Amino acid sequence: MNAVLGDSLSLLLFRLHSGRLLGINLLKVNEIIACPALTKLPNRHPHVRGIASLRGASLTVIDLARAIGERGNNASQEGCLIVTELSRSRQGLHVQNVERIVQCSTRDVKPPPAGSGSRAFITGVTQIDGAIVQVLDIEKVLHDIAPAEPEEIDESLISSADLQMLEGRRVLVVDDSHVALHQTVNTLRKLGLDCQSVRSAGSAFAVLQEQHRAGTPIEVLVSDIEMPEMDGYSLVREIRKTTDIGHTYVLLHTSLDSTMNTEKARSVGANDMLTKFSTVDLSNALVRAFQALS
């Protein structure tokens, strides 16, 4: 595969009490506020500092340092909150301080070092002005605090004809988040789909070509957008200009609000766009995909 220039990525840089420098995609950030007074709930998760009231709405405040295995800061009024919205939920991340916003290319964000392990809580690493910046895996942080219960497929919402149409059809899922990958693959397999999974866009491109050469082409690709080295948009562009796999149906599956990204998804040639994570919405999207292919 030819080298693909990554899309521009805006990162909000911030530090924890330990001084550790992290980044989060700016599209996931609603606002940054001083830490307000918190209501501490009984039996709350140890990584939750409390509940804040933000313009009349309750906001769960997470002690990010403790959530990723560091020592937290008990000072109630120190630090600030990064208010994030993703995967249909909103929460405040308590951090020591926010530094600045920087621009980089997804090509310059590398996967976590080998051996980082499942407790790394990062999806990638990059360098900004000579400093190492770790990109936060906020999906994993949220899942560890409140694991999403696997939803059962409601067969009353999917016709027997559609389930029969999906049975054994070939789908590839690519996502750099282990949590999101597991959720998606579980749902697709419950639908009877023949599902493979990979953790990077480069691996997805290679599998698409390998399966085509083997005479068992992938029919639908379900791809994350935010991934190190090559993001979902660049992956779609590369697929569309590659003759043998250029017709592959692509569903972009993102933790960001899909309404913000639909126009760009269409411009690069994606067939559909969906916000994580809803078993019902994902099931319906796959039905739409195979109906279109039929």
From TrEMBL:
Which regions span the lipid bilayer? Answer: none
Classification via Gene3D superfamilies: 3.40.50.2300, CheA-289, Domain 4 (2.40.50.180), SH3 Domains (2.30.30.40)
Listed SMART domains = CheW, REC
Q: In what residue span(s) does the Response regulatory domain sit? A: 170-291
InterPro entries, A to Z: Chemotax_regulator_CheV, CheW-like_dom_sf, CheW-lke_dom, CheY-like_superfamily, Sig_transdc_resp-reg_receiver
Classify the source by domain of life.
Bacteria
**Residue ranges of every copy of the CheW-like domain listed in the record:** 8-147
Residue positions where 4-aspartylphosphate is found in the record: 224
Work out whether the entry's keyword set contains Phosphoprotein.
yes
Biological processes per GO annotation: chemotaxis; phosphorelay signal transduction system
Say if the entry is tagged with keyword Cytoplasm: no
Task: Tell me one Pfam family matched here.
Answer: Response_reg
List the keywords (alphabetical).
Answer: Phosphoprotein
Q: What is this protein called?
A: CheW protein
Which organism is this entry from? Pseudomonas segetis
Q: What is the lineage of its organism?
A: Bacteria, Pseudomonadati, Pseudomonadota, Gammaproteobacteria, Pseudomonadales
